């Protein structure tokens, strides 16, 4: 083997990313190689910039041309997002659909969604990086407007926050405020107080107007003179686990 060939020589330190043509004496050939090298570097830079633009839009594709869900849904997914991804999946040719990482309860909900469309589903990954994967089978709903809407109508609105990134609560509130699938105060976790974030009924509310006509005013209790009642409603704390019940 000819170890003196330029292609086998080690590059000197500090010259990374540069084409070494020190041993080529033909100036025309050297210029041609340098030009091809420079053009290749320019094209690589342009492709990198294009990928950055696609990543910012959430349109960057991952392996085998599949959409990069992590880039597309940096905070999480609404139920409308999930349905839209399933719609595109049913219309396409891919056999699997991987969604972003989410907690166990949300993955279970996605499995229920998959079942509505007769898709097989399972979870993959470890720890807070576990994510649901949907599989197309011979029983999977063939996409059609009526068939899709019939399956989609069974699903309620909800938001599925990313489980592998921080700021879960902020993400829920942010996405919930956008409408079309956010659930904010409509979905609760263990220990939450139902209606804790509900606003006071405004003066335009018919129920409040009726009570005010009967003598009630804000800050006073309901009830007869000899039975003042309570100032605060009875709170209901959500319990989703069996801990502390025995």
UniProtKB/TrEMBL annotation:
<feature type="region of interest" description="Disordered">
    <location>
        <begin position="38"/>
        <end position="70"/>
    </location>
</feature>
<dbReference type="GO" id="GO:0005737">
    <property type="term" value="C:cytoplasm"/>
</dbReference>
<dbReference type="InterPro" id="IPR034082">
    <property type="entry name" value="R3H_G-patch"/>
</dbReference>
<dbReference type="InterPro" id="IPR001374">
    <property type="entry name" value="R3H_dom"/>
</dbReference>
<dbReference type="InterPro" id="IPR036867">
    <property type="entry name" value="R3H_dom_sf"/>
</dbReference>
<keyword id="KW-0507">mRNA processing</keyword>
<keyword id="KW-0508">mRNA splicing</keyword>
<dbReference type="GO" id="GO:0006397">
    <property type="term" value="P:mRNA processing"/>
</dbReference>
<comment type="similarity">
    <text>Belongs to the SQS1 family.</text>
</comment>
<dbReference type="Pfam" id="PF01585">
    <property type="entry name" value="G-patch"/>
</dbReference>
<feature type="domain" description="R3H">
    <location>
        <begin position="76"/>
        <end position="138"/>
    </location>
</feature>
<dbReference type="GO" id="GO:0005634">
    <property type="term" value="C:nucleus"/>
</dbReference>
<feature type="compositionally biased region" description="Basic and acidic residues">
    <location>
        <begin position="38"/>
        <end position="55"/>
    </location>
</feature>
<dbReference type="GO" id="GO:0003676">
    <property type="term" value="F:nucleic acid binding"/>
</dbReference>
<protein>
    <recommendedName>
        <fullName>Protein SQS1</fullName>
    </recommendedName>
</protein>
<keyword id="KW-0963">Cytoplasm</keyword>
<dbReference type="Pfam" id="PF01424">
    <property type="entry name" value="R3H"/>
</dbReference>
<dbReference type="InterPro" id="IPR000467">
    <property type="entry name" value="G_patch_dom"/>
</dbReference>
<dbReference type="InterPro" id="IPR051189">
    <property type="entry name" value="Splicing_assoc_domain"/>
</dbReference>
<keyword id="KW-0539">Nucleus</keyword>
<feature type="domain" description="G-patch">
    <location>
        <begin position="203"/>
        <end position="246"/>
    </location>
</feature>
<dbReference type="GO" id="GO:0008380">
    <property type="term" value="P:RNA splicing"/>
</dbReference>
